[in-house]
C-alpha cells in the first residue's frame, strides 16, 4: 500500500473581533503573509486583516486510501477551529477543500521528465 499525500485548504472569515484582537492580528501579520504560505502538518495560517477579514489555513496530511482525504479534511477543519477558539477569535463561513496529490495532473516539468525517462 502506498502513502497518499493530501493538501487541505480551510477558508473562513474572522467575525466579531475586538479592537485588541484586530490589533494583535495586525501586529502578527508579517508572519502570516501569503508569501510564507506552506502546506504543513500543523497548518499554516495566512491573512491580510488590513484588507479584509478572510483567512486561509493550509494543511498537509497523509493516508493510504482515497477515502482518507475526507477524514484529513475533517481533521484540518477541527485544527483550524481549535487554533481560532484557543485565541478567542470569532469566525464564520468555515469551509474546506482537499486534494489528493496522487490524483493531481502532472505539471509541465513532470511530463517532460516522464518523456525523457521513457525514451
Q: How many whole angstroms does the radius of gyration measure? A: 17 Å
Distance from first to last alpha carbon? 28 Å
* Principal-axis shape: elongated
Oligomer: single chain
Low-confidence stretches: none
Q: How is the biggest beta sheet arranged? A: 4 strands, antiparallel
**Alpha-beta content class:** alpha+beta
Helix content: 25-40%
Question: Which strands sit side by side, in order, in the main sheet?
Answer: 2-3-1-4
Helix-strand sequence:
EHEEHEH
Strand content: 25-35%
Mean pLDDT: 91
> What's the tally of helices?
3
The total of beta strands comes to 4
Compact description:
With 119 residues, this protein is α+β, with helices and mostly antiparallel strands. Helices cover 33% and strands 29% of the residues.
